[in-house]
Amino acid sequence: GSEMCKETVVDTGRTLKALIENLKGRNVASVACASLVDKPETRVVDVEADYIGIVSPNEFLVGFGLDYDERYRNLPYIGILKEEIYHNNILIKKGQNISQTLVTYGKINYV
Questions:
Q1: 3-state secondary structure of 103
Q2: Does the annotation count 46 as an active-site position?
Q3: Are 20 and 47 in contact (CB under 8 A)?
Q4: Quick one: which H or E segment has residue 15?
Q5: What angle do CA 86, 8, 20 make, to 5 degrees?
Q6: How far is CA 38 from the centre of its chain?
Q7: Catalytic choice (11, 38, 50, 69)
Q8: Tens digit of pLDDT for each residue in 22-65?
Q9: Minimal CA–CA distance to 71: which of 92, 100, 86?
């Protein structure tokens, strides 16, 4: 039969490549992979998902299930966390307005 795999973020590509090789080793007819986010700048192995939601720069992503220190996960979009937030370990407190940290950049929101 055919197999469909999914990867949230393809960064280095190592996990996706290992997954594809594992599935192919099980004698499946075909393997197709989908990724919500692709970060081609960080790729260290030659692999690509067949279906990609968005292509992202090499930034720290949050929202839509992606988090930083268990925060930002429930944002209804994918955002890029400002570097000073994770380098200075700044945490937004529950109930605090995060709008000060939101900046739109193309189709990706900066948080």
A1: strand
A2: no
A3: yes
A4: helix 14-24
A5: 130
A6: 7
A7: 11
A8: 999 998 899 999 999 999 999 999 999 999 999 998 988 888 88
A9: 92
